[in-house]
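Protocol step 4 of 5: obtain the predicted structure for the target chain.
Materials: sequence only (see below). No template structures provided, no constraints applied. The aim of this step is simply to have a reference model before the mutagenesis design in step 5. Sequence pasted as it appears in the construct record:
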Amino acid sequence: MTKFAEHIQTLKRIHKAETLDALAIKIKRLDGEIRNKYYYGDLNEEQRRSIDAVLDSYSTDLEIIKKYRQEKLKKLNKRGSLF
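Step 4 output (structure tokens):
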């Protein structure tokens, strides 16, 4: 199992998502909720850094999902070219 696949499986367990699409949707929804609720409020510097860290984490997770999909597509394309 690749590092992307391991991370994806962990994220699916954490977010209780069955599919990769469901996982991406949940992460994007959480990101939007955090931005709308907290990001523009009256926050001190420590709170803002904490929220930024969470948002960065979500961005990283979405990037991993994207790379994992690309990895799977490459494998499928390689298999398809053999026939």
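Step 4 remarks: The chain has a mean pLDDT of 86. The helical segments are 3-15, 20-39, 45-81.
Proceed to step 5.
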